[in-house]
């Protein structure tokens, strides 16, 4: 079976790495397309190295641009690759622009190509159509022949949208496959210890979403909260380029003083920091999942989450919205008081390190047959 796997941004690499390994182990031909939506070559190279991934078979190099520009560039660049490879399956992951663009190209090919689309991480919903990711999620799920869900609640979302249940398979969270595979290396790396910080003795923060960093009031509230937290608990902040630029633009760089500000870090170092933190404060979807898998208390700096299982079955909580310094600090204190999940208490169902094998099994079980896909 020939499977074309698409990755466009750093979170995608984490998800496709175990899928590629599982495809190879099953004797399938796996072809990796890196769209280049994430265009920082240094950081992309670091993720490939940390995850033990071979270079992509195709690199589309689409780079930055508006959502429309980026989506269109991926579509134009991906079509000739699809026609050349002619796979049985196109596997797209997550909710970035590349996910929707490649799914749309594959869905519009005529029967001579004969491929089907599988969406890994299907069925997640925030209910917030202001988020470009929400548009990508919903439309990709409408296009996909096989919807591979990371948690049981996703099926409810898909049913509500009228998607036929026979197109849906629960496989669990493939991102956690990578986490468990890399955890021993991450702990040996001891990224916090290299800064003189003990395990469990610091808070980790990540901040990059436009709703938090493109407004001086919102960014000032979060950075002000982190500075208050840092008065009693060291705060490590790997600083996203967008966040750094906005802090400079808004004259908020002074709020970074007293924080352990880092350049963006690779996957293994980031996992090391998450695993060793007392509390994580984040607006990242993936970090919400990682903290839940590890049992680390997490405060999500967003109005809502498309990963509610991290709240109902995990260690995550939403900070009061709209964000204020006092609200963020009080949420941090509550998470800190709760502490880590006790050892031996399992995380959500299917977050067990074997999701990639279930994904490949589902692809084999629903290998292409003659006739229309039946969207």
Automatic annotation (TrEMBL):
<dbReference type="InterPro" id="IPR003331">
    <property type="entry name" value="UDP_GlcNAc_Epimerase_2_dom"/>
</dbReference>
<comment type="similarity">
    <text>Belongs to the UDP-N-acetylglucosamine 2-epimerase family.</text>
</comment>
<dbReference type="GO" id="GO:0008761">
    <property type="term" value="F:UDP-N-acetylglucosamine 2-epimerase activity"/>
</dbReference>
<keyword id="KW-0413">Isomerase</keyword>
<protein>
    <submittedName>
        <fullName>UDP-N-acetylglucosamine 2-epimerase (Non-hydrolyzing)</fullName>
        <ecNumber>5.1.3.14</ecNumber>
    </submittedName>
</protein>
<dbReference type="InterPro" id="IPR029767">
    <property type="entry name" value="WecB-like"/>
</dbReference>
<feature type="domain" description="UDP-N-acetylglucosamine 2-epimerase">
    <location>
        <begin position="22"/>
        <end position="363"/>
    </location>
</feature>
<dbReference type="Pfam" id="PF02350">
    <property type="entry name" value="Epimerase_2"/>
</dbReference>
